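Dear H.,

Thanks for agreeing to be a second pair of eyes. The structure we're designing against is below in token form, covering all 605 positions.
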């Protein structure tokens, strides 16, 4: 691989290293999808009974079109449900896409739905233990939807945490097809995130009641659309755009606007043009290469995005035959500056980010600094330069014009020459407790090193109970273990944030070490997460005891216990996560899942 002459040297080196270590797996993947290209959609050779089943519900015109081999047929795969605010707008998308594709000379069929659960609802509940595994269920559901081999391309409708990664992993199994991701957009801004966080903390302190807390939460999450803080859902949208899988500027246009509808229509037309029967064949598996993956990591770091993507991007890359590692994240983080301040790393939300320059300014800044590969394949053609543009609506549909040359609010978005921080704020830790990830973009510098006695818990409920009982005095490192994928599906542990923040604000030195997740809402408390190997797999966390001195050092990149763990027996979890709320159905996944470092997936590790 030859690097672009203006590419930042570390970006070039990480990309070269990724391509080199992936030669065998990437070659095998490309061979597989290129062989599928040669076969073409199976409907061209299906028996008559098979094909009749495939278009039995179509209108007469679509049946006639699909009887031959010259009319492209697009699959629609959707995560729609009307309980999730982010997915409720997707209800109308299939009809909009079908009409646009039909007018452009193709056919679109709703191929299948995938599950979509909300981590915001399941936080602290048993259902959260299904959340990470839902990613792989979604990937398999996507494969089932596409398995009929009736299709020349596909559109993926999904937004939130595990849903977009699952859709992409599943679609990469059909990497010979061109694919577009079609977002719904964020809800209008409600109660500012900093005010919501203040009420949450006051509730944790017992200073306000449930009624006031619910009123604040309802004012923040108040209408159709994606939650407006910069967590995993909005990190997903940013990543799909920088990887060229969205239309330029599509990520953060709000639901229900004429431009949002026009972009949805255009996505259908664009995939139609990108099929093997169109003008610019662009198969997904060729598009998601080592350059696109490195671009995704760079953009994640530049925006202080969700730490969940240290799992998801690794799993996505593996689905495309690429062996991305946490070391790649760490090396890129050293040279990628932090260019945004969005909650929980600042006061602004994604709507404000979009207003002041958004994705076009971010991508342009990173391209100009040599931090992104420009020479990639995208939904709209070769080259990432097209993503410097922003969409506008005219009488014939969306058109693209040059994006802003500067940020309209430098408290929210800046260029590479004037960053919020010189690095991406995502660091890797290693030591005798294993390997872990820490997001420090919202952590005050004086809290980057914490050394204190361990307080060991087998789940977040136990820590919450200790806090409520007034039993968390003094400095300590909370070790919350048996939260990894093999133990209980690796739930997010957001219920820990308010009590630990309260204690930190009281002047105590506190930190969190866990084999669980904190995700895009990781905040101001230093947290070493995704500890690998996990306690359930015999990792050192299983041998830590109350009082052991733990040192978390985000400056040196170390995670250590200052005690001799040799000879100690592994603890066993005090909480049974094997059944209830459907968890018994996921036993096979817990038994098959790989470690966090390889994406915490049940295949490809």
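And this is the sequence the design step returned. I haven't edited it by hand at all.
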């Amino acid at each position: 691989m030859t690097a672009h002459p203006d590419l930042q040297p570390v970006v070039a080196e990480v990309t070269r290293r990724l391509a080199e270590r992936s030669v065998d797996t990437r070659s095998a993947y490309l061979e597989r999808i290129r062989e599928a290209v040669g076969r073409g959609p199976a409907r061209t050779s299906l028996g008559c009974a098979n094909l009749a089943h495939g278009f039995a519900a179509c209108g007469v015109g679509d049946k006639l079109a699909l009887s031959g081999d010259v009319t492209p047929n697009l699959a629609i795969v959707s995560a729609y449900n009307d309980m999730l605010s982010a997915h409720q707008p997707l209800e109308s998308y299939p009809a909009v896409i079908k009409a646009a594709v039909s007018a452009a000379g193709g056919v679109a069929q709703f191929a299948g739905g995938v599950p979509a659960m909300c981590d915001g609802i399941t936080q602290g509940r048993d259902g959260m233990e299904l959340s990470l595994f839902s990613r792989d269920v979604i990937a398999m559901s996507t494969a089932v939807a596409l398995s009929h081999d009736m299709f020349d391309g596909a559109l993926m409708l999904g937004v939130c945490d595990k849903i977009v990664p699952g859709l992409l992993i599943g679609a990469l199994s059909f990497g010979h097809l061109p694919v577009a991701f079609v977002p719904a957009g964020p809800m209008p801004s409600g109660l500012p995130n900093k005010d919501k966080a203040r009420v949450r903390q006051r509730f944790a302190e017992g200073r306000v009641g449930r009624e006031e807390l619910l009123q604040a939460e309802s004012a923040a999450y108040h209408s159709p659309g994606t939650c407006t803080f910069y967590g995993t859902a909005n990190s997903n949208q940013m990543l799909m755009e920088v990887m060229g899988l969205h239309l330029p500027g599509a990520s953060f246009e709000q639901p229900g606007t004429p431009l949002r509808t026009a972009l949805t229509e255009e996505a259908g037309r664009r995939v139609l043009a990108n099929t093997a029967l169109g003008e610019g064949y662009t198969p997904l598996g060729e598009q998601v290469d080592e350059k696109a993956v490195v671009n995704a990591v760079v953009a994640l770091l530049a925006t202080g995005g969700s730490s969940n993507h240290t799992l998801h991007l690794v799993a996505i890359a593996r689905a495309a035959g690429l062996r991305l590692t946490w070391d790649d994240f760490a090396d890129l983080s050293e040279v990628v500056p932090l260019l945004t301040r969005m909650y929980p790393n600042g006061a602004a939300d994604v709507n404000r980010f979009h207003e002041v320059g958004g994705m076009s300014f971010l991508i342009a800044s990173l391209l100009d600094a040599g931090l992104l590969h420009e020479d990639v394949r995208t939904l709209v053609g070769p080259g990432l330069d097209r993503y410097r543009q922003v969409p506008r609506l005219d009488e014939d549909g969306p058109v693209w014009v040059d994006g802003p040359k500067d940020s309209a609010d430098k408290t929210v978005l800046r260029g590479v020459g004037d960053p919020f921080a010189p690095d991406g704020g995502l660091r890797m830790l290693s030591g005798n407790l294993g390997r872990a990830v820490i997001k420090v973009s919202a952590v005050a510098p004086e809290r980057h090193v914490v050394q204190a006695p361990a307080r060991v818990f087998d789940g977040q409920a136990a820590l919450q109970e200790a806090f409520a009982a007034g039993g968390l005095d003094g400095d300590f490192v909370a070790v919350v273990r048996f939260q990894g994928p093999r133990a209980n599906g690796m739930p997010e542990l957001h219920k820990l944030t308010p009590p630990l923040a309260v204690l930190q604000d009281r002047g105590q030195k506190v930190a969190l070490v866990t084999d669980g997740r904190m995700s895009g809402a990781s905040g101001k408390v230093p947290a070493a997460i995704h500890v690998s190997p996990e306690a359930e797999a015999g990792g050192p966390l299983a041998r830590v005891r109350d009082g052991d001195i733990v040192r978390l050092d985000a400056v040196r990149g170390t995670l250590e216990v200052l005690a001799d763990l040799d000879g100690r027996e592994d603890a066993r979890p005090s909480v049974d996560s094997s059944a209830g709320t459907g968890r018994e159905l996921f036993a096979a996944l817990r038994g098959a899942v790989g470690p966090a470092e390889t994406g915490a997936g049940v295949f490809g590790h």
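Two observations from my side: The first helix runs from residue 9 to 21. The first strand starts at residue 73 and ends at 78.

Warmly,
E.
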